[in-house]
Fold:
Amino acid sequence: PRSTLFPYTTLFRSAKVALEGHIEASGEEDVSVALQALQIRLSASLGESRAALRSARRLVRANPDDVDAGIALAEAALEESEASVAIEVLERVTTAAPDHPDAFGLLGRAHRMSGDGEAAEAALRRAIEVRPGNQQAKLLLGYVLLDRGKYEEAETLYSELAQAGRPSVAARLGRIEALLGLNRMDDAQTQFEALPERTRESASGLQVSARIALAAGRPDDAVSALRPLAEAEGATTDTQAFFADALYAAGESRAADRKSVV
Structure:
């Protein structure tokens, strides 16, 4: 997801500027498909996904069997939430290049977006098999395992990520979700309190805090954690629904009804 790339935005933007300068100096007709595909992927990661998707479609039409072009199209399509487009092209790419380091990770992401957890898990396990050090694929696999209720496997995976080095914030929050799924409330609370304050107060941190509060029978605390997220401009449907659930649990059914129809 693009949100995982925020720490690298400056680096990606610099790379995109440098690449565009190289392409301009070389002349578009002399630029390889791989470089054009890289330019598209950088654009998609920087929030320019609509234009990137148009460029990727043109590139694939001109180079229908090129793996790099296919990967660029899939990545741009995912940023535009067009999972079916990504799956179609990635099925071709993974057949043509079964050891591509990115293809199966993207395919797992696409299947998760489409709601097919089983296929997502299979693709991500293949991504890790192809490149055992693929931390992003492992992190996404953890999400899929949580989606599928495989909390013990998810907790083991997140623990391994922590032991392998400095764990990401997403991995630490994912482990807490797994602990909640295993009804290990005290461990989940301890792990949450060990997070930096800025993480606890982030949107993801507040949602995890609310889940801990609901699991511990403290719905009022869950409402307090979720209220600023639910009332913020541009709040997602999932956030609104979660807030409505918390309001119901706290006995505020009238307010919950209003939120559920927002």
